[in-house]
Amino acid sequence: MVLDIIVMIKQVPDAEEIFIDPVKFTLNRSQARGVINPADENALEAALMIKDKTPAKITVITMGPPAAESALLECMGRGADRGILITDRAFAAADTYATSLTLAAAVKKIGRFDLILAGESTTDSGTGHVGPGVAEFMQADQVTYSTSVKIEGDTIIAERELEHGIEVVQTPMPALVTMLINANIPRRSSLRRRIDAMRKGIETMDHESLGLPPEWVGIKGSPTIVGSLKIPEEKKRLNKTITLEEIPEMVKELIENKAIVLGDDEDA
Amino acid sequence: MSEFDAIVVGGGPAGASAAIKLAQNNMNVLLVERGDPPGSKNVSGGVLWGTGLGELSDDWEKTAPLERYLESKSVAFLTEKSKINIDFSTKNFEEQKTGYTVLRAKLDPWLVKKAREAGAMVVTGVTVDRLSKKDGKVVGVIQDGDEITADAVILAEGANPRVAIDSGLREPLKDHDVAIGVKEVIKLPEKTINERFNLRGKAGYACEYVLGFLKDGVEAGGFLYTNKDSISIGAVISMKHLRQSNQVYSFDIMEEFASHPFIAPLLEEGRVDEYSAHLVQEGGLSSIPKLYGDGYMIAGDAAGFSFSNGLVLQGMNYAISSGISAAEALVEAKQKSDFSSASLSRYQQKLEESYVMKDMRTFKGIENVTWSKMIHKTFPSMLENVMMGLFKEEGKPKKHMMQLVLDSMSSSKIKSKDMLLQGYRMLRRM
After folding, report:
1. Does the distance separating the beta carbons of B128 and A194 come in below 8 Å?
2. Between these two residues, A20 and A61, which has the higher pLDDT value?
3. Quick one: fold of A3-216?
4. Given 3.30.9.90, 3.40.47.10, 3.50.50.60, 3.10.620.30, which CATH number is that of B177-281?
5. What mean pLDDT, rounded, does chain B reach?
6. Do the first three CATH levels of B4-65+103-171+289-364 and B177-281 match, i.e. the same topology?
7. Which residues of B touch A74 (CB under 8 A)?
8. Is A194 in CB contact (< 8 Å) with chain B?
9. What's the CA angle centered on B314, arms B313 and B320, to 5 degrees?
10. Taking residues B187-196, what's their average pLDDT?
């Protein structure tokens, strides 16, 4: 049996090259090059680690502009078998609902799958909605915040990293797993596979080939309304140097000003 | 049957130029660059001399990311408290397209894009491990255990040519042949740069410095070039001196240079936008390896094609020219289906006919002049003494300039015979 694994990725602007427009509060990404969203690299690596042990076919999909092709080629360079770019002007300005719907339609079009892997969230929006959204549309089991995933028979065993420990989850396939950033160390692409990827090329899908009416996708299909944006004000630091003897007085003062709150950790 | 007509290792000016020329001649070429994006691993001072880009693209003057054209070129000696400056500004430079300041973060992606547009297959972010050889001939490259074959490989991997060295195609680098360049790009408003350097429009300024204020016998040069809205500033320090002393660090020298009383005001209120360091080829003719063999050629910095006489630093122009020559030689070899050493010797021939090898031969041994105590220590302090003697007014009788020079020489314990000999050598080699 060959496992069918789908990895969902997004090309995001390199976080090191982004700055916030001080007037419009939008992200200025004009200087930033496109890179694979870091957690998605971990999702791909998780898929490749499964493929290292079990026969598997990895299909990487992304919704984005034509330039996102380079991210798919890089994924194929690392070992993915197939790259699909879901691109259409009609998809522009989609929120997480419309994006999940579109990606789920692509998954349906691809056909069968045993496992879908995705990054837990992206560096350019950080909602963490899309993985779970696709799982809901596909009515598949989902495991979020994972650091590892392995195959056992017809099931997957994933480790979830939570605040107070690790939760080990076993669930039957098909399933969707979202991977945390830094869950593993992504491998590098090889020259041989990159050349083959460029020769093979990537496939594309648009709203017509996915059978999605235009009003279901992009900004028209997005219920989210952004009210306003603001940058949190930078807090002024006191930069005080104090002696050992002054510490109790300082702590007392901080407690009085509610800068330190005493009590049990609410999750404990 | 090889998979590619040619594989070019390295997507800097040499490699990208070779790939553009090969693709323009309908060769099936693969360009492999370890940086992603191209240029992210590359460092230059930042002046591209000449019109080499014109041989690659008809629209280069409009589309290439040229920051400013050179209008003013200076050479300066810095001592602890002084600057002695020779300044040459001319409108001829613009008319004759003499040189342009460039930023590699923009230039290299432009070149690689041109290669892609011409039809080359480009892979970035992948490092070639070594060459693949069969019966002593280079037949391709090896990466991550896979062989990719080609009729010929052009090695244009830059100043630290690991593949060429590991494959025994050139000697390991010697301290004597390299320096370390440390560079910062300082962001400043275009208007501020124009005011500080007396520039208008797209005119630019470039200056090379002798850092005569350094202690412990360390020899280093400096450079400062104006870009559109940034300044490229850097120091080039001889590897020999860095190796000799445990107390001297390249970044400290860079800091000392940038905080010199006559440099700091030029950078004031600027923000560091890039910080980089790189090996610089300084070996001249004697460090140039065999440039070709069965199935391979070496171009650009990897071949030691860079030039510095203290007045000017050049490398990118040689890189472009040598990359083009290698490509042309390979196109001819393809026509004959002969990729042997004898066939690829056309490359050397082309370089000998062009300014590349002529310059290397004309300035043979220049590195022994530019890297000397005379240039880096004695001369700057003598100049300072003479200038002080000329302008200081302390109620004593004035001296002739010649006397000031002689006094300065005797205080520096230099015999006039040695001075003349050194001066003669310098003039002859520059």
Report:
1. no
2. A61
3. Rossmann fold (3.40.50)
4. 3.30.9.90
5. 92
6. no
7. 125
8. yes
9. 165
10. 97
